[in-house]
Amino acid sequence: MVPARAGCCSLLLLLLLGLWVAQVPVSAKPKHMTSAQWFEIQHVQPSPQGCKGAMDNINKHTKHCKGLNTFLHESFSSVAATCQTSVTACKNGHKNCHQSKEPVSLTQCDLISGKYPACRYKETKLHASYIIACDPPQKGDSGKFHLVPVHLDGVV
């Protein structure tokens, strides 16, 4: 009976470990960055680059291939100015989202194959408006803005 009990405990430990790992999102921001700094790395690209190099820069922080990412071809200041537009509900129901006043140039990168670090992406150029979530700046962010972008909620 002892071997069955040891096997049961091992199985329970494995199950709990699996549940714990499932709680850590693969897109979690690196600990040494603020949410706005991570947003800037993931989504702000004033000069368009190809998906390969741009996504390599994101994936090196998370050590996995991100499935979908959109780059806004605007300066961080221009994107942060969107935080001053009227509030709209986010997809998650929070009331801290804001829509850009006009369409901007975007690049969408969709993962088509590969395993980190050999990720392959399909690139799509768009001209569309976007919705971002904004929060007050954290310690380490520029004090220049009352609100800073922290999440790209959608493209419309």
From TrEMBL:
<keyword id="KW-0540">Nuclease</keyword>
<comment type="similarity">
    <text>Belongs to the pancreatic ribonuclease family.</text>
</comment>
<dbReference type="GO" id="GO:0003676">
    <property type="term" value="F:nucleic acid binding"/>
</dbReference>
<keyword id="KW-0732">Signal</keyword>
<dbReference type="Pfam" id="PF00074">
    <property type="entry name" value="RnaseA"/>
</dbReference>
<dbReference type="GO" id="GO:0016787">
    <property type="term" value="F:hydrolase activity"/>
</dbReference>
<dbReference type="InterPro" id="IPR001427">
    <property type="entry name" value="RNaseA"/>
</dbReference>
<feature type="signal peptide">
    <location>
        <begin position="1"/>
        <end position="22"/>
    </location>
</feature>
<dbReference type="GO" id="GO:0005615">
    <property type="term" value="C:extracellular space"/>
</dbReference>
<dbReference type="GO" id="GO:0004519">
    <property type="term" value="F:endonuclease activity"/>
</dbReference>
<feature type="domain" description="Ribonuclease A-domain">
    <location>
        <begin position="32"/>
        <end position="156"/>
    </location>
</feature>
<dbReference type="InterPro" id="IPR036816">
    <property type="entry name" value="RNaseA-like_dom_sf"/>
</dbReference>
<protein>
    <submittedName>
        <fullName>Ribonuclease A family member 7</fullName>
    </submittedName>
</protein>
<dbReference type="GO" id="GO:0045087">
    <property type="term" value="P:innate immune response"/>
</dbReference>
<dbReference type="GO" id="GO:0050832">
    <property type="term" value="P:defense response to fungus"/>
</dbReference>
<dbReference type="GO" id="GO:0050830">
    <property type="term" value="P:defense response to Gram-positive bacterium"/>
</dbReference>
<dbReference type="InterPro" id="IPR023412">
    <property type="entry name" value="RNaseA_domain"/>
</dbReference>
<keyword id="KW-0255">Endonuclease</keyword>
<keyword id="KW-0378">Hydrolase</keyword>
<keyword id="KW-0964">Secreted</keyword>
<dbReference type="GO" id="GO:0050829">
    <property type="term" value="P:defense response to Gram-negative bacterium"/>
</dbReference>
<dbReference type="GO" id="GO:0004540">
    <property type="term" value="F:RNA nuclease activity"/>
</dbReference>
<dbReference type="InterPro" id="IPR023411">
    <property type="entry name" value="RNaseA_AS"/>
</dbReference>
